[in-house]
Amino acid sequence: MTSLPASARPRALAHWLFAVAALIVLMVVIGGITRLTESGLSITEWKPLSGAVPPLTDAQWQAEFAHYQQIGQYQQLNRGMSLAEFKNIFFWEYLHRLLGRVIGLAFFLPLVWFAVRRAIPKGYGWRLTALLALGGLQGALGWWMVQSGLNRTSTAVDHFWLAAHLLTALFTLGGIVWTALDLLALNRNPAARPARLTGLAIAALLVLFVQLFYGALVAGLDAGLVTDQWPLMNGHFFPGVTQQGASLGHVLFSDPAVVHFIHRWWAWVTVAGLILLARRVRAASRRASIAIHSAFGTQILLGIATVMAGVPIWLAALHQLTGALVVIAAVWGAHVAGSRTGA
To answer: How many other C-beta atoms lie within 10 A of the C-beta of residue 231?
Structure first.
């Protein structure tokens, strides 16, 4: 059972974690815009400290541009790009990396402060440390993702690395929200025990994970541009494979048309799982149930609109934002389903 010494501050910890979660949601949106604007390869080096300062002189800008001109994305897609155009894509990647640094500090510094003040309840120190480690892993995955495209043949990052990068961010987001909810429950009742995952919650979250994974593949492969039709795809229910003779693994995970098709229709399996979860928790928390329905309903509509409008950046970014909100709502519902109170 979790003890609650007089110095513990579960409510303050929960509010801090919710603030970090909000930053991660913003990070997911900016990351989506970075991908949509094909800005992710504009910064070709990883400088954890000095990279926080952008180029300030013409010479520094020219040096950054010269590095970018050596890679395949420039040579095959953006040859002849002006320095002003380069600065536009540099902005999004720089903002994405800068926010990553801000999130790291926003987690690490308060964590140290709470630990020094002995404000962390027993049993939560290791969880918060694990979440910090996940944040570090997220940064490493981001750089490995960028490295996958820093060569003379690639024009974008590897879509599997992109999926790992995004899913780790969303998993971290879910872990932070879950821990914050545990802390709020502890604040209300010092005898409350951490929530557990129920069978239904695990099933719903796994189904959602598959959908998020395919959503990341869609982004990495630009598969949203395969068609602007819904529910058909270029006049057909199933569009067929893009490359004949490819392996089954390639078809399922790397063929843009098939990946788009799976993401489009697995969404309804996800909806079914989330509806079941929402119905299960409705009696305990009507707000959580409403949040789940509202999030996936909005997400479905945004997904259809994004495809039919030809994947405009603002709509696609809203779609990614709502995807993060679906994760939060689903985690909230799963937490309600597994909440328990100690004697």
So the answer is: 8
